[in-house]
UniProtKB/TrEMBL annotation:
Belongs to the ComB family. Pfam families: 2-ph_phosp. This is Probable 2-phosphosulfolactate phosphatase. Its cofactor is Mg(2+).
Length: 238
């Protein structure tokens, strides 16, 4: 099979892609997919992504941890938001987390409707993810969560890192893949410095969570690949 890799720059464009037989990688670097990867790697039994803050309330009596973020901030009354520092082994090991975020969980639900498989990508698990995608006889769509359906830099940079890693294993690329790879080539020497240009970086800076940004740009801290099974994100077994 001649495999193709494509980059969807925003969830608003996902309907343009044929993904019924594809592995879709959902990307929300700052911060949902980084935190999900870190949480599953730290022993979380599962993370359940839900679309709305109110949906978390359906799990209030379940004993699960409830995590809700909107516009970069923890929603009042919830256990935590989507900072990776909330997903340490001490906090999540053996537990299930119900999570809703501004962009990442929306992208997950859009992918879930049609994709053959949905997995989670972040700089934290870049090598493990790429190794898995190389081993599968499937097309790949890299779905950037963006910011409220608009393009963003950090998700596109990660998509470019994946494209560069997989170039020898896939035969067909779209123009957004080429653009993402070129952008990553410009930024990879100092990702944090490059992302000072980004709008979301400025948003997060106003919330005084620079440590989160730096953490999410680390390479290969984790080996786990979260995969969506039913409504639950769990560690991929391969």
């Amino acid at each position: 099979m001649s495999k193709k890799i494509e980059v969807c720059l925003t969830p608003a464009l996902i309907d343009l892609y044929d993904i019924e037989q594809s592995i879709v990688v959902v990307i929300d670097i700052l911060r949902a997919t980084s935190s999900i990867t870190y949480g599953i790697d730290n022993g979380a039994e599962a993370i359940i992504p839900v679309a709305q803050v109110e949906d978390c309330l359906n799990y209030r009596d379940s004993g699960f941890l409830l995590a809700a973020e909107r516009n970069g901030e923890v929603v009042a009354g919830y256990d935590f938001g989507n900072s990776p520092f909330s997903y340490t082994r001490e906090k999540v090991n053996g537990k299930t987390v119900v999570l809703t975020t501004t962009n990442g969980t929306k992208a997950l639900h859009l992918a879930q409707k049609r994709a053959y498989q949905v997995v989670i990508g972040s700089f934290l698990n870049l090598d493990s993810l790429c190794h898995y995608l190389k081993s599968q006889d499937r097309n790949v769509l890299l779905l950037c969560a963006g910011w409220k359906d608009q393009f963003n830099l950090e998700d596109t940079l990660f998509a470019g890192a994946v494209v560069g890693n997989l170039r020898q294993n896939f035969e067909h690329f779209d123009d957004s893949s080429v653009a993402a790879e070129d952008l990553y080539g410009l930024a990879k020497g100092d990702l944090r410095k490059y992302l000072y240009k980004s709008s979301h970086s400025h948003r997060l800076a106003q919330l005084n969570i620079e440590d989160d940004v730096v953490f999410c740009l680390q390479l290969n801290l984790c080996k786990t690949i979260p995969v969506l099974e039913g409504e639950r994100l769990v560690a991929l077994k391969n």
